[in-house]
Design brief:
Helices cover about 75% and strands about 0% of the residues. The chain has about 150 residues and is mainly alpha-helical. The protein has one domain. The chain is globular, with a radius of gyration of 16 Å.
């Protein structure tokens, strides 16, 4: 149940991001709020969590228990948090490429995927009370991906 409630939070937060863009940047907001892009971005908002499978299978191997996965027990038990897609550096790179594609090719696809991922990471940061550094891949790698980074120790 927790996982479902959390994912609904991601969905609602993303809708508020897109509505804000619609209000502040009418032309771009209308493009991003089209049904096609809205569906793609919502999928990206949720699918970014696929990187949790890397952490799960790295700890448990090929055994899978949905309840353990949904509760995130693998993080506490392994003492490590990798979640490679939850990365400010990756998101910055995708934003830069996304802006380039909008300017040069009028293609919004990568930008909409990135906005979905970005809203997810912002939501997680606020929801869990993580420090901004916690989602820096470089910072986590320097700390050997230790879970203490997320616990604020």
């Amino acid at each position: 149940m927790y996982l479902i409630v959390h994912e609904i939070g991601h969905f609602l937060f993303y809708i508020s991001v897109i509505l804000s863009i619609l209000i502040l940047f009418r032309k771009t907001g209308k493009i991003l709020f089209s049904p096609k892009y809205l569906i793609i971005s919502l999928i990206a908002t949720l699918l970014i969590d696929l990187d949790h499978f890397i952490d799960y299978f790295k700890y448990y191997g090929l055994l899978f228990n949905f309840e353990d996965f949904a509760l995130g027990t693998h993080f506490a038990q392994s003492g490590k948090v990798y979640v490679f897609l939850h990365s400010w550096e990756l998101l910055l790179l995708l934003l830069i490429i996304g802006f380039y594609l909008i300017k040069k090719k009028n293609n919004y696809l990568l930008m909409i995927i990135t906005l979905g991922m970005l809203s997810h990471v912002f939501y997680d940061t606020a929801y869990y009370g993580f420090s901004i550094e916690a989602y820096s891949l470089i910072y986590r790698a320097a700390g050997n991906f230790d879970i203490a980074i997320f616990r604020g120790f």
